[in-house]
Every structure is written in structure tokens, then in C-alpha cells.
Amino acid sequence: xxxxxxxxxxxxxxxxxxxxxxxxxxxxxxxxxxxxxxxxxxxxxxxxxxxxxxxxxxxxxxxxxxxxxxxxxxxxxxxxxxxxxxxxxxxxxxxxxxxxxxxxxxxxxxxxxxxxxxxxxxxxxxxxxxxxxxxxxxxxxxxxxxxxxxxxxxxxxxxxxxxxxxxxxxxxxxxxxxxxxxxxxxxxxxxxxxxxxxxxxxxxxxx
Length: 207
Description:
Elements lengths: L7 E10 L3 E7 L12 E4 L2 E9 L2 E7 H6 L10 E5 L19 E10 L4 E6 L13 E4 L2 E8 L3 E6 L1 H6 L10 E6 L1 H16 L8
Antiparallel strand pairs: 1-2, 1-6, 2-5, 3-4, 3-6, 4-5, 7-8, 7-12, 8-11, 9-10, 9-12, 10-11
């Protein structure tokens, strides 16, 4: 489980094509501190398993399904990536509950800078629009963000200088893909309401 608070901006140092998968080697001095085989690390919001770890680098295998459903397939040697280790039990939940399970990808549509922050407009797949609401939470490339405006096919977020300086959203431009994970609580609520209507139990209490 993650919180969407990026710990460091890492770098892809190698990509090996394995046919039906890819093996990534990534550099991240903070997230590799104490890392062991089998540990989880979120890379641009995708929960990956550490295969090997040496110095300040680790390797992770990414299967074809993950490459297809996320933007990791577009990474090359030298790409910068957002890195986060799982949150520890009892630690502060600085962002929101993030699983590291990408729901789909969006695209940077516009960037509107101002003196102290920047508004970024991102496309939203039709199947995810119902989970995104104004002032709700969404994860973009592993970053926990608050939705400023939610449309039928897009949403906007406001980025503070720290986010611009310490994450990939500081350098991504219109046309670049981003990984999206919607609030899992919204999906559970929808599932419960749908199941209730299907079995006839979704009636108001007291009736």
C-alpha cells in the first residue's frame, strides 16, 4: 500500500526486452536503502517487485499486461521516474490510499503556468470518468493529487513548486502519457451499490 507521496525522482538505467516482458534497472538511492528481493516499489505509480538490488540500483520485471495497461512501456534508458516505497504501518498517510494498480493511462493536454503554481489538464478515459470528482483524490504517475476540475473526458490538477521540482510532472509536456489510478474507495462503493440493486437488497434502511 502506498500514499502517493513520491520519495525521489529516479532514473531508468537499462531496459531489457524479455519477449513477453521487460526487465528494468532503475536507480534510486532512497528507495534502495535496505531494499531486499521481493520488496515492492512503486514506479510511476505501478507497484513492482524488486528482483535484484545492488548499490543504489534495483531491477524489476514488468509483464506484458502491465506494459500494455500503463505507460511503463514508453520508458527508455535515461527516463526519469517517480519512486515510492510502501507506507509503514503506523506512518502518516500524507496523500491517500494508493494500491499501485494502474486503472488506465491519460495524456497531458495543457500546461498553464502562473507565478506560484501550474495548472495541468489531463485526458481521462471514458471508463474512469465516473470515479473522478472535483476536490477528490487521483493518482497521476504515482503522485497523490487533488482534482481541481472534473470533466467528461478530462480533469485538471494544480501543482505546487515542490511537485514540479521533485516529480516527473515538472518535465512532462503535452502529448506525454501518464498512469492513472482512481480512488479505490469509489470503486468499492460502486460495486456495493450495483450488487445491492442486482439482488434487491439496495433499499433504504427502515423499509
